Here is the input.
Amino acid sequence: MSAPVITRAEAFRQARAVLDAARRRRDSMPIRQAAEAAAVGSTRSADEIELILRRLHRQAAEMRGQGEQQLADAA
Here is the structure.
């Protein structure tokens, strides 16, 4: 008995849904837990990864603030 055939577009939609769900789980993790998960199989320690993640998180917040200020200035 053969498996049902799905279209390429449907396969992409299903794969995208799986990736989006994984991204939501990852994004909802506390930074320390995400760092520990990322450290598995890495040459960096969880502490190093946590510092990097916190730095990136802070920079992203600053960039969002600058973007919002530019929008307010343009209005």
